[in-house]
Amino acid sequence: FMTSHPKDLSEELIEVMAKYPSVCNQLHLPVQSGSTEILRRMNRRYTREQYISLVEKIRSRIPEITLSTDLITGFPGETEEDFRETLELVRMLRFDMAYTFIYSPRVGTPAAADPDQVAEELVKDRFGRLLELQNTISREKNEACTGKTFEVLCEGVSRTNPARLTGRTEGNKIVNFTADGVCAADAEGKFAKVYIDAAQTWSLEGRALEWEES
């Protein structure tokens, strides 16, 4: 499994994303930790400051971009100060979404053999604090979308409510919405203008105002 890495995000790629409207305004940029020391231990090849600078550069060129990341708690050697630096980075950069993980050893890796393992109870506590913070931010960012209209690509019937359709914005935000008189089979794969009237932590809710012409 491969995922994006900050070292591979060139200025040229940022410019292409900013220039072409056919490219979605969404980027997954894993940071893993807000501590430069832990990033060094992970062999990530960038510092906290370099990552922050990269995000600032992206947002200056693509102000409406939706940014998600990966975060790990409990990597060997992580101190409370290292963890606080991660929390501070999350508060500062305010990711739209984050995939949060508890470190688990992989046989044969240097980290698995590191004697400086973090106690399980401490790791779980940090994970809970991190998740609570990110969930609050995700909810706030979604609430900022209420009262606005977005173009949504319909993917079909909502899995949680068969009376609604579901789709995604160009920023990859999930939208569950009503569409009076519209057949789900006909709507799938089409774009709709959707007015957002409610927000959840991981999704938006609304109603279709109009559909693209066939």
> According to CATH, what is the class of the largest domain?
Alpha Beta
Instruction: List unreliable stretches of 5+ residues.
Output: none
Sheet of most strands: 5 strands, mixed, barrel
Ends: how far apart?
38 Å
Neighbour order of strands in the largest sheet:
4-5-6-8-7
Total separate domains = 2
* Number of helical segments with 4 or more residues: 7
Query: From the alpha-carbon coordinates, what is the Rg to the nearest angstrom?
Result: 20 Å
Number of strands: 8
Order of helices and strands: HEHHEHEHHEEEHEE
Remind me, CATH topology of the largest domain? Transcription Regulator spoIIAA
Q: Which CATH architecture of the largest domain would you pick?
A: 2-Layer Sandwich
| Overall residue-averaged pLDDT value | 94
**Helical coverage, percent range:** 25-40%
Q: What coarse outline follows from CA principal-axis ratios?
A: elongated
Indicate the structural class: alpha/beta
Describe this structure as you would to a colleague.
This protein has 214 residues and is α/β, with parallel strands linked by helices. It folds into two domains: 138 residues, 2-Layer Sandwich (Transcription Regulator spoIIAA), CATH 3.30.750; 63 residues, OB fold (Dihydrolipoamide Acetyltransferase, E2P). It has seven helices and eight strands; from the N terminus they run H-E-H-H-E-H-E-H-H-E-E-E-H-E-E. Strands 4-5-6-8-7 form a five-stranded mixed β-barrel. A three-stranded parallel β-sheet has the order 1-2-3, with helices on one face. Strand 2, helix 4 and strand 3 form a beta-alpha-beta unit. Helix 4 packs parallel to helix 6.
